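Notebook entry, structure prediction.
Reason for the run: the old model in the group folder had no record of what sequence produced it. Starting over properly, with the input documented here first.
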Amino acid sequence: MLVYPSAIDLSTAHVHYLSRELATRRREIGTRWRRLTVGRQALLALAHLRCGDTYAQLAAGFGIGIATVFRYIREAIEVLAAQAPTLDEAMMTARTKAYVILDGTVLSIDRIAADRPYYSGKKRHHGMNVQVLTDPFGRLLWASPGLPGATHDLTAAREHGIIDALAGVGLKCWADKACRGAARNVRVPFKGRRLKRWQRRHNTTHAKIRCVGEQAMATLKSWRLLRKLRCSTNRITNIVKAVLTLHLASA
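New structure, fully documented this time:
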């Protein structure tokens, strides 16, 4: 396999943050020696998350075995996922905002046609349903664990406790039509073709507010691994949390 120099479109703050967390992890478990330093392990994990490089590509580039790459990346993701904010912590941050924006996405996964629970009829591909909360400026606050792609957005929001958490702090939330009937504090657009003029104006204003939340989805999917996940569905939640932690650490 040919090896060539490459670059990752991230700042050094990401490497420094992950290096510190990995160094703490190594001290906790009493690691004495490894093939890669914490800085190189951090770079390895970032290349996988940001660029979506495969284990074989990373093994060739860093001069280590594929099994070692897998262990190093899994450890880095677990370390980062443990630092991700919980929903309660996100609510504490969100209480200082005027409102939040709730949106859902279906992350594409490599599944076969027989895996019906993971098939999203709306997106017409297999995936994992992830709900995201953002502030009024489109900055990520929290990302939910992944659920099978066939899960409806409102069902996912209720299962994660998002609706109850928003009601508990009395926070207004803007969401799409999928969350119709969620709660009084969850604002959704009017549905139907024959709408009155004031309803159409409401929908226009609502769309302008919600479109800011799409920036968060673009930020999430700028980590190219999330554009097409080919790992076990059991690992996707930790991957999403790891990406969220890195984003918040550099914000």
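Summary: The two ends are 37 Å apart (CA to CA).
The old model has been moved to the deprecated folder.
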